[in-house]
Write a structure and sequence with these properties.
Blueprint (H helix, E strand, L loop, with lengths): L2 H10 L10 H11 L6 H7 L8 H11 L22 H10 L3 H14 L2 H8 L4
């Protein structure tokens, strides 16, 4: 089971079948469950036992401590951010105008609409 299936089972009070239970799983489940503000008072009481009882017992405590909800709240998966490709022409314009990255991001749409990329690449000596 992945984390979101486990959380769904905790909310709906369904049978939990977990292959490997360790402290990291307990920490991850607690971090995901804290995104629901209704759980915060319950988690505040439960988290005190995280490192003092077995991970299996901690998950049982989460199961008992979180109130039943037939519709678990929508918890968005956290995805890795994709690194943006650096546009060499915009980096050169940023350097020439002495802009910060924030100023470049703010003016990027305007620059894309206004400038003729081929002409500017030739003028600024950018090879792409």
């Amino acid at each position: 089971m992945n984390f979101y299936e486990i959380i769904k089972a905790i909310y709906k009070k369904e049978v939990l079948v977990i292959d490997k239970i360790d402290v990291t799983l307990c920490i991850i489940l607690t971090n995901i469950l804290k995104l629901d503000r209704n759980n915060l008072p319950n988690l505040k009481k439960i988290i005190q036992y995280l490192f003092f009882i077995e991970p299996k017992r901690y998950i049982m405590l989460l199961f008992v401590g979180i109130p039943k909800n037939s519709y678990p709240p929508f918890l968005k998966k956290v995805e890795k951010q994709k690194p943006e490709k650096n546009d060499l022409l915009l980096m050169k314009i940023q350097y020439i105008l002495n802009w910060s990255t924030r100023e470049l991001n703010r003016n990027k749409l305007l620059l894309d609409k206004v400038i003729d990329r081929n002409l500017w690449k030739n003028e600024l000596g950018v090879k792409a």
